[in-house]
Design brief:
The structure is a single chain. With about 290 residues, the protein is an all-alpha fold. It has helices at about 1-5, 10-15, 35-60, 70-85, 90-115, 120-130, 145-180, 185-240, 245-285. Helix 2 (about 10-15) packs across helix 8, helix 4 crosses helix 5 (about 90-115) and helix 5 runs antiparallel to helix 9 (about 245-285).
Length: about 290
């Protein structure tokens, strides 16, 4: 009974699992002084893991009949290369962008896949390692808005870079004040249209960047919450004799959602990669 009295409520359980391992406690919605150590550490480890897997595939590649591992990596590389050719028509740019897209897909897939681990596994291990039963740890970097917006901001920087590189600073500047509504020979109308065009371009860049990051974050955050709710079903069954059917529901719901989530984590990695290619392709095009 004492254990039941000290057990967290469902709300406390979810709130605890949504807290990051941070340098300081976040005091506002936007606080650039906060650093989420868990997201950075897990993302870095998974990034190195992705590099190692791709390096291992390249190292073991043979010209003969490929094994399953080599065939899978070759299919992945071919898929990304085909998408890069469809969106980036500059062969020189593809030498950098195609490997970038492959890295983005593999890295985001691995970060998304952390959601497939049992909800309490790594947090409990971390609490045991730190001897702190209230220690926080979140293990899905893409369920952290700072991670996804950081990735989308990096794509924005690359879009601006290629806009200047391909069109020149003057050409890109001219595009900013003449697209999408064009210009006029009348100086007054030309000025008005220039201001409107510039505002529209700024809105477009901001909207693409925010939606790029928010789409990935929203899907992974929702998936993480569903896994927590499913985990609570098992916890409720353990503490309630009336909930005898909850273990069955816990297993069925967990299995169904896990199978469906495999598609979600793969699809979200693919969508983020495709939007990266599309935005970089648009940066190469003149309006």
């Amino acid at each position: 009974m004492a254990a039941d009295a000290n057990a967290p409520t469902a709300s406390e359980y979810i709130v605890h699992h949504l807290q990051h391992l941070q340098n300081i406690k976040q005091k506002s919605v936007i606080d650039f002084s906060v650093v989420n150590y868990d997201s950075i550490a897990v993302a870095a480890i998974l990034g190195l893991l992705g590099i190692f897997v791709l390096w291992l595939a390249a190292r073991k590649a043979t010209s003969g009949v490929p094994g399953r591992f080599q065939a899978a990596v070759e299919m992945l590389v071919e898929m990304v290369d085909n998408q890069a050719k469809a969106n980036i028509h500059n062969a020189q740019s593809r030498k950098f962008i195609a490997p970038l897209a492959l890295t983005v897909f593999v890295w985001i897939f691995l970060m998304n896949a952390m959601d497939m681990l049992p909800v309490d596994l790594l947090p409990v291990l971390w609490q045991g390692a730190t001897a702190d039963h209230h220690a926080y740890l979140r293990v899905v970097p893409t369920a952290d808005l700072s991670t996804t917006l950081g990735l989308s901001f990096a794509v924005l920087v690359l879009c601006l870079w290629y806009s200047v590189k391909i069109k020149g600073l003057g050409g890109w500047g001219h595009e900013l004040v003449t697209a999408p509504f064009g210009t006029s020979k009348n100086p007054v109308f030309a000025l008005i249209l220039g201001v409107v065009n510039l505002l529209m371009q700024i809105i477009e860049y901001v909207a693409k960047t925010v939606s790029h990051g928010m789409r990935l974050f929203g899907n992974m955050y929702a998936g993480e919450l569903v896994f927590m709710l499913i985990a609570l079903m098992g916890g409720a069954a353990a503490m309630s004799l009336s909930g005898v059917l909850l273990p069955v529901g816990h297993i069925i719901a967990g299995t169904i959602w896990a199978i469906f989530h495999i598609l979600v984590i793969t699809l979200q990695a693919f969508i983020f990669m495709m939007l990266t290619l599309i935005y970089l392709g648009q940066a190469h095009e003149a309006h």
